[in-house]
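In this notation, each integer encodes one residue's backbone shape. One such record reads:

___
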Amino acid sequence: MIVDHKGRPIIDPFNTHHAIIDLETFDTSSRAAIFALGLVIVDPELKIIFKGEYILTDPFRTPTGDSRFANYKVSESTVAWWLSEDQVTANHYLEDRGTYDSIRDMLNDISHIIKQCPKDDFLIYGNPSDFDISILTNAYAKTRVPLPWKYHQSACLRTLKRLAYPGEEQIGKFEGIKHTPLADAYHEAKELIHVLSYLRE
């Protein structure tokens, strides 16, 4: 493994594992309350080897008064958007699949999966990174669950897409229900595979 002058691994994006995350939250700041997360892992051969979904139980019951979100930011406007008619299908899906009673338990399970990647030799992607990764990093700090990656391993899918396909917000056909974590993360993983394949060639 190649390292830099500080001994940190230099990760080759064309020969590493990729962990793609997508969050569903009740705010857009770094302190946002997370209620669902999708995780997809892609191996160095650009094959999807894991798809996982992590959702709190009854996330829409009383978001502004939910004790699970006491240390996080819940925006009334974001909650109203989630409860709007446009989100009915996503709401039913999320309510039906909620299995976690605490954010801490959810993060512990996410960490367990991410740690299956080679230590210090994988990249973690947000779309963009300053939304998903910053919110998730803050949640790890608040719950005191060790962060399962180093800061230099974070990557921005949006930036990669702009480099390869300027002007295109979405690459390929979306499958599933938009604004549900696994469907979003799976689509982003397919976009990443498409971009890396294009750049590699």
Notes: The chain has a mean pLDDT of 94. The helical segments are 76-82, 88-97, 103-114, 129-143, 157-164, 181-200. The CA atoms of residues 14 and 196 lie 7 Å apart. The first helix runs from residue 76 to 82.
